[in-house]
What does this fold into?
Amino acid sequence: MFLKKCSQGIVFTLLSFAVILWMTPFALAASRVESVDQDGDGKKETQKFYNDKDTLVRTAKDTNGDGKPDQFTKFLKGRNLILREFDANGDGKIDKRKLMEWGSRRLVPGQSEIPSYVPLQTEEDSNYDGKIDAYTEKGNKDAAKTKIGQPFNTRIST
Ligand SMILES: [Ca+2]
Ligand SMILES: [Ca+2]
Ligand SMILES: [Ca+2]
It folds into this structure.
């Protein structure tokens, strides 16, 4: 009797797991990709990726019309903190990266600050040799010294 109950418990547990595993692809399927024509030229150049809560988490955009995405934006804290990555030479590898925070900045000297993305960190491989050529970090003028010449992470952050 006891053994029977025990095995029933195990079967139930296994069944629960099976149901969870079976449900997982449906949960993932809830996250969706949307292709949009953001610039209104009739071509859907921007892909928007949503998570299972239907929150926009990243976008991939083809800015030069060659059919391959070359500008990637990841929303780290909604739209307040974003990581933007670029593939300037279209080889499928990232060669420029900017971490930006929504705030305000003075675009024209002498004029008042206006709402804008403020770069916190930028890095660039401008000759596509996989090494950092330019680096900036907000509030740290010496940061570039240690970064230039270091390997550039060419992978898209997803
Ligand atoms: Ca492109
Ligand atoms: Ca590239
Ligand atoms: Ca380089």
The radius of gyration is 23 Å. The chain has two helices and eight strands.
